[in-house]
From TrEMBL:
It holds the Pfam family ABC_tran. The keyword Chloroplast does not apply. This is ABC transporter ATP-binding protein. Its main location: membrane. Keywords: ATP-binding, Cell membrane, Ion transport, Iron, Iron transport, Membrane, Nucleotide-binding, Transport. One of its GO terms (biological process) is iron ion transport. It is found in: Cell membrane.
Amino acid sequence: MTPTAPRAQGTVQIRGLRFGYPGREVLSGVDMDVEPGELVALVGLNGCGKSTLLRLSAGLLRPAAGRVLLDGDDMAGLSRRAAARRVALLHQSAPPVPGMTVRQLVRQGRYAARGPLGMLRDGDDAVCARAMADVDVTAWADRPVDSLSGGERQRVRLAMALAQDTRVLLLDEPTTYLDLRHQLEVLQTVARLRAERGLTVLMVLHDLGHAARFADRILALRDGRVAADGPPDEVVTPGLLAEVLGVAGRVGRDPVGGWPVCYPDHPLPAPQDLVK
């Protein structure tokens, strides 16, 4: 086999990726590239494989076939701790930890780099301090996490992911359960950090309007396969709304920013309903 050529830091390559559970295939041969510094939004209906794709990309799952390459290295060959030194994944939700402070939670992001003994050392290292400063939570460092609002907790969890100090950031529905103000706050923070740190970001979003506004590219999954992949101006169409998201609707342009704006009208019958 010809060795894969080294790539620039932050390059993600996915080749022929397949994954499933007994009786159900989740991903059916996905191919995609994410270039260094790019922000790509994954969209699609529930169950189409978006979160599974992130978990495979973070090395938390092993594919049935195909490969996930980070800077040319196969993620399947890395231990979980080694993978966590290369890729940070912010899960959709996390169980509460009563009594844990913001500082303590952010320090959890240093486990892959510092190890269990290093986690026992007192004080924040420079990476934790920068992570908290970058999302503006330093003033809350000694507050219990469970005393914060949903939007505040999400910023703290983002700081924990940043504390892994990786070039690749994977975000699984980072705006879930947040009101509109906090959704925008989180997405604007991600966009700013991508630019300031040169991060490669792969982010699952349910809101196609947010994806069109903040992402360089949109990759739409349907039934475990890539249904569309390209810049928002090319991908966000009435056809995408119908074929991928199952709704009839219209697409216009934001009069100020120029990005696509979706106007969903009504849900379409599910494919199984059409054959009854």
